[in-house]
Amino acid sequence: MRALPSPRGPLAPAPLPLLLLCLLAAARPSWEDGHPSASPVTSLPVRVEMMAKYSNLPLESHNISLTEHSDVPVEKNITLQRPSNVELICQFTTSGDLNLVNVTWKKDDELLESNYMINITGSIMYTLYTVTIINSKQMGSYSCFFEEEKEQRGTFNFKVPELHGKNKPLITYVGDSTVLICKCQDCSPLNWTWYSSNGSVQVPLDVQMNDKYVINGTNANETRLKIMRISEEDQGSYWCHAVFQLGESEERLQLVVLSYLVPLKPFLGIIAEVVLLVAIILLCEMYTQKKKKQPDDGKEFKQMEQLKSDDSNGIENNATRHRKNESVSQ
C-alpha cells in the first residue's frame, strides 16, 4: 500500500487514515490561495465523523497514476463484497504549472464536492478521496479529473465478486443425472439461488417441493445444482444467483440434453450411405447385363429369320424341281 506524500514526508502505514487527512488539511492552506477550490477543507469534519462511526470496518487503499501524456483514461477494477472504508488516490505528473490544474471527482456522472483532498509535491499532484461503502447504492465508478490543456481521467470501478461456471454447454443424456457448478473466488455470499429460464423469464427452482433438484455446496464460495431423471424438457439455460452485502451477481450455464439415438446418427448415416452405394452398384450391374443381352437377342432373331428363309427357299426349290420333273415325264 502506498502512502500519500505530505509536507512532513511519507506517512507510516500504521496510523489511521484520519491522520493522513489531517496532514493533507494542514498542507492545503499553503497552496489553496492560488487554487480556486476550497471545498475539500470544509468537508473534513464530515470525514472525521464518518471514519469514527465506521472505524471498525476494514480499510482499503487504491491508487492510479496519470501523466500529461496519457492518451486514454486509466481504469482500475476493484472487487468489494462487504462494507469497507476506502481511500482512492490519484497521482498526476506534469511539466506545467500544477497551480493551474483543476481537480474534480465524480461518482458515475454525479459531481462530488466533498470528501477529497489535494496536495502537491514537486511536479506531482495528489488527490485523495475517502468513502465509506456500506450499501449497493455507493458501489459504481469513482473518477478523478485533472484538467490542464486537456483533461486526464482515472476511474475506480467497484463491483461485487463475479461468478464463474462452465464456459461451454454441459451435455447430458435423457434419463441421466448431472450437476451444474457455480463458484466465485475468495468470496462468501450471503445466499445462493438457482433459476431456470422460461423464455425471457427466470423461474426459481423450488427444491423443497420438487425432488428432481438438489442444491448443495462443499464450500461457502460455491453452489451445486443436481438435476435427476433428466428429460428433454430440462434442456435450456440455468442461472446461479449470489447475494452479497453490497450487491448481487449471477452467472448463466447452458444444459444440452441428448437422446441415446443421437450418438448412433453418424453410424446410421454411414449405413445409409453404404446401402445406397450397394443399390447403385447393383442397378449398374443389372443395366450392364441387360445391355449385353440385347445384341445377343438380335443375333438369335437374325439366325432364326435366316433359317426360316433357308427352309422357305428349300421348299420352293424342291417344288420347282418337282414341276420340272413332271413336265419332262409328260
Automatic annotation (TrEMBL):
GO MF annotations, alphabetized: cell-cell adhesion mediator activity
Transmembrane intervals: 267-284
Record localization: Cell membrane; Synapse
A GO BP entry: homophilic cell adhesion via plasma membrane adhesion molecules
Primary localization: membrane
Assembly behavior: Interacts with SLC16A1, SLC16A6 and SLC16A7.
Protein name (database record): Embigin
Organism: Equus asinus
Gene that this polypeptide is encoded by: EMB
